[in-house]
């Protein structure tokens, strides 16, 4: 391979090993658009990994970006276990101590939008936000969940690609605000509902064996 700084090769073992008791075992640096460290796997079957990271009680792989994205995937992401997100909080948080929250799960790919509207004389029309409509499949039906913010019972009278109508039950003429949640299909998504996936049982790497 032209331009390779370090190359390792092994028939039945580790190609390259780096070790440090107090710092990075392997470090890569790049000033261009290419990645500082690249992992490639030409195996055509399921379960092959380009990059593998392992940690006893920390992070198997750590990514950081000051103004971009710490992680980018051009393809699907499969996670065995919960997905956590973290952020600052009003009390008890610090620069390195955040409050964790869980990512929700759905049985199929969905894109949600929330907002508020006002029922006037028992009638309201809510147009879909243009950015939201641009990101969903408007040829497929979507769900609308309503929460009246007053003493009235509401229902969805009609849904189109441009928006939906809300009415008061019994032909009432109440004027109250309401909240709504729209659940739609993302544009271009053909993923099936709750699919089964065969996942490779990835064995851990013994660092003492790898360092030999």
Shape: elongated
What is the beta-strand fraction?
15-25%
User: Regarding CATH, which class of the domain at 111-184?
Assistant: Mainly Beta
Strand order, biggest sheet? Answer: 3-8-5
Task: Report the count of strand segments.
Answer: 8
Q: For the report, how would you describe the main beta sheet?
A: 3 strands, antiparallel
Helix content: under 10%
Look at the structure and give the mean pLDDT. Answer: 87
Q: Ranges with pLDDT <50 over ≥5 residues?
A: none
- Do you know the CATH architecture of the domain at 111-184? Sandwich
Cα distance, first to last residue? 25 Å
Determine the CATH topology of the domain at 111-184.
Immunoglobulin-like
Radius of gyration: 26 Å
* Helix count from the secondary structure assignment: 2
Report on this model:
It is elongated, with a radius of gyration of 26 Å. Strand 6 (154-159) and strand 7 (163-168) form a beta hairpin. The protein has two helices and eight strands. The protein has a domain at 111-184: Immunoglobulin-like. Strands 3-8-5 form a three-stranded antiparallel beta sheet, with no helix packed on it. It has a three-stranded antiparallel beta sheet with strand order 4-7-6, with no helix packed on it. The protein is mainly beta.
Give a short synopsis of this structure.
This protein is mainly beta and 212 residues long. The protein is built from two helices and eight strands. It has a domain at 111-184: Immunoglobulin-like (Sandwich), CATH 2.60.40.2080.
């Amino acid at each position: 391979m032209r331009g390779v700084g370090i190359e390792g090769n092994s028939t039945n073992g580790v190609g390259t090993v780096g070790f440090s008791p107090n710092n990075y075992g392997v470090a890569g640096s790049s000033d261009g658009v290419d990645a500082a460290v690249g992992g490639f796997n030409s195996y055509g079957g399921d379960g092959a990994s380009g990059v593998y990271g392992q940690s006893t009680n920390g992070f198997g792989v750590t990514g950081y970006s000051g103004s971009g994205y710490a992680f980018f995937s051009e393809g699907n992401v499969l996670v065995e276990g919960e997905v956590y997100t973290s952020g600052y909080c009003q009390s008890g948080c610090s620069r390195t101590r955040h409050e964790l929250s869980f990512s929700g799960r759905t049985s199929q790919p969905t894109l949600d939008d929330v907002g508020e509207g006002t029922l006037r004389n028992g009638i309201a029309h809510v147009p879909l936000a243009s950015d939201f409509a641009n990101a969903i499949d408007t040829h497929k039906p979507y769900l609308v969940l309503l929460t009246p913010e007053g003493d009235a019972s509401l229902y969805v009278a009609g849904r189109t690609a441009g928006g939906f109508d809300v009415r008061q039950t019994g032909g009432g003429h109440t004027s109250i605000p309401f909240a709504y949640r729209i659940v739609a299909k993302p544009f271009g998504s053909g993923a099936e509902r709750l699919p089964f996936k065969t996942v490779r049982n990835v064995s851990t790497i013994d660092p003492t064996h790898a360092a030999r």
